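Hey, resending since the last one bounced:
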Amino acid sequence: MKWVGCIVWLCRVLLLVFLALAIFTLPKLSFDNNILALFPASAEVGGQAEADRLRAQQVERRLLLLIGAEHSGEARELALQAATQLRSCDCVAHASAGFDSGTDSLDLEAIYAGYSQQLLSPRVREQLLNGEARELMEAALVRLQTAPASGLARRLAQDLLGTLQDYRQQVQSMAQKITLDERGLPVVGTGSQRYYLVNVTLADSPFRLDIQDQAGALLDAIAAQVKATPGGELLHAGSLFYTRAGTDAARAEISTVGLGSTLGIILLLMLAFRSPLLLVLGFVPIALGVAVGLSVTWWVFGSVHVMALMFGAALVGVAIDYSLHFFTHRHWLAEHWRAREGLQHLLPPLGLGLVTSGGAYLSFTLAGFPGFSQIAVLSAAGLTTAFTVVVGLYSFLLAAPARRALSQRLRTNVERVGRLQRQGVLGLRRWVVLPVLLAALGLAFLNAQSNDDIRQMQLPDPALTAMEQRVAEQLGAGVALPYVLVSAPSSQVLLQRLERMEVHLEAAVREGHLQHYHSLANWVPSVSRQHLNHVLWQNELLQSGLLEEFYSQLGLTPAARGRFLAIEPTSPLRLSSMAPHLAKLPQAPVYFVENDLHYSAITLLGLKRSGELAAAVTEESFAYWVDPVERTNQLLQDYRLAVVKLLLGAYALGCLLLACRYGRWAPWLLLPPLLASVLTLATLVLLGQALSVFHLMALLLVLGIGVDYALFMRESRGVSGEATLATGLSCLTTVLSFGLLSLSATAAIHYFGLTVLLGISLTFLLTPLALTGVERDLHKQ
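The structure tokens again:
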């Protein structure tokens, strides 16, 4: 009996620690709803992880707005006004109604100044190679004569033919259908349906809730202004709109699960125990368990994923189990209840239940999924807190016998149900059970299909998908998820290799497999290419006399012509001087150095057929084809197979732990969740569901929770309806919570909830199997 008192006081001390932790931490909580954060990172080659991170940062923070109106002038003013409004918010890093994303573009113009002979766009270079230098000169002459502007001397010295401006535009433009209006602002569309482009870069990740709230409110206000304009229409694309929709859906589902579980528990407690005090006390371990679970998760991971928060809402149905067992035992004994003796009876199964349930949750961490690791830590911490509340607090507050015992009708009905359940399960002949089990296994094996597609884990809002498709149609090319990663021992070799990749990329463009691409070599040519451009310029324009003729037609004096012709090109533009500026420009290609190797990612636009281009890319030893979706799908497949091994290991470990108390009968306590898991998989196959890693991970929870039912059934030896009532109430609360999760629009949560719903229900029905051989059990209570 002394050990009972020690455990009680230990739980009370832990309870105070948990309470202080929750009070200190809850105000600091931050949440994340990035679906990809649920999955482990994988990098098959060096630099891939960093490239993924930088590309994701670029893509996820960028927004595109297309603003149209009945009159193009009004649309232009709306676009300029929207850019101004967005720049005023701390949630936005850059916003402009143009190609550029901020004042850093002015630095880019200053850097390129003076390099007109070395920086030639592919169009200009092709003109010079084809002997069309005179056509280039005549076009420049027409521009200068028909649209004169101030600073002519500077323009003649730095960009006399407008080739540098052409180079900057091809660098910064990532779409095929963008044109410039009379004020130099980018416009898409033709005729009356014209839209002005607004480029926006968020100050931080759109998965941050504060960024969603601030930027979302501002965008809603802009949308209202556009809508109030005659013919006004706002098209948009970007991760922010998906994350806002996902957050709203998650909040709704969390409310549904939490409210549904809470109402269900209230109803069950009042029907079973008819005590307002127990109704209040029943929610103490739930509330504190969720609070401590969230706090511990925040300390371990630095943030809490919304999916983990949703499981925190479902934790309501599991954390109440310890309270239900305590309440049931107290009310079943009625006036014979003694707190210390009651705890002595309850602590072994409750303790083993905490170990098995907590162990089942913590086993999620072995699968390597960050999201499920958060769920594991949150749930294990929450269950531990609930256990300390029941043992430490209830033993003090509920030390006296219950004033109102269980109704006789309830006791009679529970005992009748328990008796029928035991007779039905234990009366099954093994020669009947074994063929059924084998048939279920055969059915699952022969007809099972797998689903490892990350794209089906969270179906996007159809309205957002349609909106993004309209934006892509207007711009002409959308950014593809696959990309090409190129590595090199130095920056110059990297640029040369990127230029070498242009052969494959241009071939893909000609064949219609690719619309456009965005390479670092387009921003900073290699020194060797700059030298070739300079030689081409000298031969076709300077030595041919075309430049002197050009200056003469402009009316320059011989002295002025000589001064301009004598201008020597500056030293080659190098990547080292450009890198700091590229890091500030959100639309610049990814470039970084890792382990003394230089890396850059080539962005692909309008990718239609990836197979041929991927095959061509992999022919080069320094280039890698990276498809994040396919890589994640392969990860899901690998982890699905790994979880099967994890399940087998969990059952083996559980058998060893239970053998310490139940000896050779330990496997019988694991038989109910094992049979339930097999039947659940067979049922899912019959329902037409393709099995995923989330179905299998849910079976770990079926084991952890289901073995609790077997423990209490075994401890009661089947001679009392108490175990049937307690496990029945626990089963109902768990089924309610995870049944609501099965209604989630997120496929991963739906799979998990449905599997637990079926598995726990079947486990409860099969629980009497744990009584096998109980009359010969030599264990002495």
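The chain has four domains: 1-32+274-406, 109-159+527-572, 425-447+628-781, 462-525+575-626.

Sorry for the duplicate.
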